Amino acid sequence: MNASCTTHLSKAGLILAAAFLCLCVPSIAQVMTAPEPPKVEIVQKLEGQVPMDLTFVDESGDVVALKDLTQGKPTVLALVYYECPMLCGEIMQGMLKAFNDLEFTIGEEYQVITVSFNPDENHELAALKKKNMLEHYKVSAGASGWHFLTTKDENNVRALADAVGFQYQYLPSVDQYAHASGIMVLTPAGKVSRYFYGIEYPARDLRFGLIDAADGKIGSLADEILLLCYRYDPASGSYGFVVMSAIRIGGLVTVAFLGLLVGGYLFKEFRERRRATPTRIAPSS
User: Fold this and answer.
1) 168 touches 177 (CB < 8 A)
2) pTM for this structure?
3) Residues 192 and 166 sit within 8 Å (Cβ to Cβ)
């Protein structure tokens, strides 16, 4: 191969390399300059008061205030949007599974409020979502206690989200919302009592959370005893077994059991001695 051909090949290679760089550099630059996804999380506000006078539109199209929906019962609160392509559906499926596993019944021991933070959604969509969820709930009685709300007033839903520390942000580039994942349990007065994170909510933890929020007004004596052995961990949003509490309770039960045994034994001894003691007959005059 002569020098002229070599020179032409070298030039062609340089041209191809330059063209490749022209194509790749913008893509690389775009990746390097792409904005980071927004940081959305749940900032705990335990014992914080939810503004219960906030009004929303329920699945029937009626304007309702939050204070009228709790009905003196502990309440599970979830902030979602009904046309969410993925995460919200997972949250609501996790809720449904927990509710079906609970011995409590929606509308009897507790209430559920699901609120859409998308102002473009309406009560017809809420009604459809409610219908779909209740079709898979264990009893039909839950219909009166599970409320699906919407609002056109973004200030209202933002006030509710801020009160419970729930963060969300609209992303115009994808026409979706970035948002946190979790549910909250409110007291009958509307104070934040418990948080449960993620998309799965163990029925045991949710049961304990509802009992705590109700200040022991629901549940059984066995639940109250169990709660002495379990403690809510705000960092993990779950209930953990407390070894020392269990040991103390076990010790008290053991002492009480031994006390009953000893008492029973002493009582038996006393009765046998009374039977063995001869009856004295008073002498006649």
Assistant:
1) yes
2) 0.73
3) no
